[in-house]
Design brief:
single chain, 2 helices, mainly alpha
């Protein structure tokens, strides 16, 4: 019985994490929490990196 409770809790944590990520992505927030101008992965997140550096 405890295994089911732990499994359900783990699934809920994953679902909430994914939901928050999708919500932040739709609202335009960065997933890393910092500005994109200093991010080494900015080119993979944004197709037009030149606009970020202006």
């Amino acid at each position: 019985m405890i295994n089911y409770i732990i499994a359900i809790a783990a699934i809920l944590i994953v679902v909430v994490t994914i939901r928050n990520f999708v919500k932040n992505s739709k609202s335009g927030k960065s997933s890393c929490g910092c500005s994109c101008s200093g991010c080494s992965s900015a080119s993979s997140c944004h197709s037009n990196i030149d606009d970020l550096q202006k």
